[in-house]
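Onboarding guide, step 5: your first structure request.
Type a short instruction followed by the sequence, for example:

Predict the 3D structure of this protein.
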Amino acid sequence: MAKSKPIGLAWRSNTLFIVSTVGIGLFTDLFLYGLVVPILPFILRDRVSLPEDQIQSYVSALLAAYAGASVCFSPPAGIIADRVPTRQAPFLVGLVALLAATLLLFLGQSIPVLILARVLQGISGAVVWTIGLALLLDTVGPQNLGKTVGSIFGFISIGELAAPVLGGVIYKKAGYAGVFGIGFAILAIDFIMRILLIEKKTAAKWDEKAAGTEDDSEQQDGGTATGEDGDDNEEEPLLRKKEEDRYKVPEGQSKVIRSLPILYVLKDPRLLTAFLLAFNQATLLATFDATIPTEAEELFGFDSLKSGLLFIALVVPYLILGPIAGWTVDRYGPKPAAVLGFGYLVPVLILLRLARPGGTSAIVICCALLSLCGVGMGVIGSPSLVEASYVVSQYDKANPHFFGEQGPYAQLYGLNSMVFSFGLTMGPIISGGLRDRIGYGNMNAVVAMLCLITTLLSVVYIGGKPKFLRKR
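The system replies with structure tokens like these:
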């Protein structure tokens, strides 16, 4: 017997609602991660009764447990997601893991329980990011992925950067109950939205119009999102044929490749460079998160609340420019945004050494410099995912059935989540160590050099090789 049409099918499968649900899911993951970080030392001291000299090492261990779980479980999450008929089921499983993690952190009174909570939180992050990004691609299509990702990254950056400060402030005013109360409230909103969500391919069983992605009308225009030169000349058909042959997978692949076909694509330098962009983006975010509070305290004597307010200068340009930069990526390809964004960040990061101790004028200068960094962060938000999605889609088109019915997109985003999580992990380690050894200004100069290397690799690989290199 056929199932009856779900109530509210039109708005529950609407693109805006699906994108909003994914955005809230990613926001919840990063917000709850950051919300708990500032109170971990107090949990260890008050509930576990750890000696003062052991607290820092166990805080580091709990942070590592999250990062390790996220890195390890991202690829399996992608594999599972590409082999199940719907994205919604694993998307809900990720939220259940996050709810369990939050409950354990709220009630836990021993080290093993707290470690289990952080591992579950890491697993949830792996699932939510992997499934969420795959669901985004299913919904908006590749032609609109850039502006969608840019908008979402600008939104969730607020949670990633502001949550630690908010957690510290609420803990001072309302204790553990206040901190976790906010966490459970956000989880409730997230849960309701994920339950209500209906994927477009599921909605198509009752309404065929609901199956189309936002870019269906643009599918005939294949050159806007690739970043490759599209000049019409007599060489174009030959170049296109050569490009198509490049994505063909030869016969006789090993059993491992046939089981996990995404592994074959990892040898493509364009995809590897896209992953480098994701790693550096995450490293930059984590570096700002780790060093701005300590530098603000040292320069201006700021407490946690005032240090948190400095993040406004960084986040607002990111929030405004994210969608605009994403639209340019959709329109002109990822190369211009990647090259200009990372190239722009090189001098801006070096200029952060101009921050000096002082009064209002010194604080204004610091905020201005952070705003300039926010501009760069907004520009680099979407090129990585758009480029990676395009490369994998070309392999998928050139090799029908090789990657399975749903393609390898969730596997791709699982790997991307792993790389991004690794960047979030390495950012504080690299920046903290460099700041202690060579100072804040020189630390940013080193990070600027990483951006310069990324810029040069983007020139060569992102969006395809430029003409002057392709003809040699």
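Each response can be followed by summary notes, for example: The first helix runs from residue 9 to 12.
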